[in-house]
Protein: GIY-YIG domain-containing protein
Organism: Nostocoides vanveenii
Amino acid sequence: MASTAKNVKPAKSTLPAADVQEFRGALSKFLSEKDDSGRKWANAKWGVYAFYDYEGEPIYVGQTNEQLRVRIQRHLTNQRTDAVAMRILDLFEVAEVSIWPLWEYEGVKKGQPRFKDAFVHLNALEYAVYLDAIAKSRFKAILNEKIPPVSQPIVLPASLRRNVISDRVRAERGHPDIRIERRAETISRLASVARERGEVSEGLRRVLVIQAVRLAYLASTRLAYVEGRELPSPDVIDMEALVGSVLAEFSDPKGEESDAMDASLDGELEQDDPDSAG
């Protein structure tokens, strides 16, 4: 009997579809970029990050004190963050990423004298980046379930912003019909979360409205394009009339509830995935 080749288990990195592999390759390259001091930007323990869609529209802002690399990878590869699990953030909509590291707090840990000052600074940076994102958004709103705690204005530190999708993937995923279908599916899944869980945050319901507005605008611009009409202006959308102020959480403006939840989530993730920094 002729011998047969022994089956070999494939490497996990070869299993994703080609577009996902390209995305992860571009993300890995971004996370490996170094600053003028030779430090990898994403290796900063403390910092803030932001995601942008195919038009450069800001869609999400977050913070971390466990390492920028770890938190961004959890969002965009492991799918183990609350924003992804709750169907608030669609990974396929992320085309660019920015990071703002706070290098001065490297090595600062909970319980140490500087931890409180570092955390206050981190909150202030997240709020400053969030306000900048709101100002630059055509809809004057982004997809954060929890608005960062209101903080004193600060000057933004040096940042890095890069594309994390190839031209081929942008051409494929960026087609308006694909994005309309994908966004409608995201809204459906988010609505299912609200319906199945029932007791969800006010912020999740706000995000549902914002996603619906984003879908309506995308579909309306597609219609205008195929009809040869002038594209509608996003100025016709009064987001504040639809969802209220997005500058502070109505029931928790200081972010006290979110601080407790984030600390709990970070602890769970560190226990579950101690080697994710890779």
